Amino acid sequence: MRKALYLFLLLLVAGCGQPRARHQAPYREANYAHGGPRFKILLLFDDSAEPAHVQFAHQAIGFFNKLTVGEGFVVDSTQTLDGYTLEQLQEYTALIALNAAPSRAARPLFEEYMESGGGWIGFHAAGYNDKGTGWPWFNQFLGAGFFKANNWPPQPALLELDRTDHPVTRNLPASFVSPASEFYQWQKEPRENPDVEVLLTLSARNYPIGLKDIIYGGDFPVVWTNRNYRMLYINMGHGDEQFEDATEKLLFVNALRWIVSCDPAGNPFDR
Ligand code: ZN
């Protein structure tokens, strides 16, 4: 009982989303015992996406694989969740959506995975949705409305931390200029949602931002979490400059570490 309370307090300290249910992960339990990989992640990407999003996805696959030097964890990648069972998906501490959302057929599976304590980091286009998407669950999951606007062309932007004491923003400067990216602005700004915690915002000092498609103002969250889930949305993810900047790479490592550490089945870094 005491241990359960301790774990719960730990989760609170880390600002973890509320785990809805403990899920089984026999793979991880088996591997801790002999010092094997601490956890598994699954990268979801789509090679038929917009070329700049494919470019990002392939660089991201390289980035996450490079983090496994020494086999600290397992990285698998797939272009579709179709054919996975819930049990297979639950082997993964987190699903990292690089440039794609699950197919229509896999939506119920993904919902079940997330509702039962699964982890998700979604980059840029992985969160894209508009009125044609027809997936209300995803809107409440993302904690935002529909895509509203984007800057074009991709360009560097000044970003400002909303919180300096969160594991995701740990050791990041209070403000920094990101590498060139296309940023999505959202309708029904996530900040209006009481379940959403915004961690990083595109500074109003960028306005007007864009040369072709110009955004003149408005709230512009860039990284946020919906406390009802173990999830993090990261607006970056366009083009080939996302892994050139140490600050941004640190943000991505922090993000991975936080989502994984909040696993309701146990923090793999504590072992
Ligand atoms: Zn894009």
Topology of this structure?
Elements: H1 2-13, H2 26-32, E1 40-44, H3 51-66, E2 74-78, H4 86-89, E3 94-97, H5 107-115, E4 119-123, H6 136-142, E5 147-150, E6 155-161, E7 175-181, E8 184-186, E9 196-202, E10 221-226, E11 230-234, H7 246-261
Parallel strand pairs: 1-2, 1-3, 3-4, 4-11
Antiparallel strand pairs: 5-8, 6-7, 6-9, 9-10, 10-11
The structure holds zinc ion.
Zinc ion binds near residues 52, 53, 124 and 238.
**Outline:** globular
Q: Enumerate the distinct ligands.
A: zinc ion
Distance between the termini: 20 Å
H/E element order: HHEHEHEHEHEEEEEEEH
Query: Main β-sheet: number of strands, strand sense, barrel status?
Result: 9 strands, mixed
Give me some keywords for this one.
271 residues; 21% strand; 9-stranded mixed beta sheet; binds zinc ion; 26% helix; 7 helices; alpha/beta
